[in-house]
Amino acid sequence: MMLFHLIKKDVLIVKKYVLILLAAAVLIPPFMLWRAPEYAGVLGFMFSAVFCVFMLLQYVSLKEYQFPKAASLLCALPFSREMMVLSKYIFCIAAYAVCCVIYAVETFIIPGLGIADAMLFFIMFLMVSVFIGIYLPVQYKLGYEKTKFAFMVVIMAFPFILPYLLKMDGINLQFFSTVSAPLFYGGVLFVSCVILTVSVILSMKFYKETDLA
Q: Do residues 13 and 60 lie in contact, with contact meaning Cβ atoms separated by under 8 Å?
């Protein structure tokens, strides 16, 4: 129940930006279909998911950085630092789940986007797990002030990386189709859970050492 309140707190923090990011999640896949129809399904969903999860995470971190006393007040209440860390991960995963739902709905409305393939969602979940699995511990260790530049680099590099990704012939899921479905899904979930578990443990360790005074 306490985790729910912490997640709700993050949702309230980003409520002003939710409509903007929902619009981004809706518009990026059709834009990719227009610009590069052969890669629309994979790259469109990939960019919308990474962009939205990263932006939401950045907005929450920014507000927490601007109001440092809020964390101290939460710790004074029955909210442990471990729960505060865990809620951030659940918040990111929930944001990714929303992106999946949006993309799945779009594939029914816009046939050119292809099919909302479970394999794509699982592979992207692994990628999101790697992303937040690296970013959050680094942020808890170094602080928002130092890690915020990673956000600027990603945004600035986006237009330059996109053309190279579009030229890559290997962006497809054909290789994974040769693996049996139970083995593939189980393996991806296992690896993702291991990455997230290690990341959560590291983040909790670093956040415990953070001076909130």
A: yes
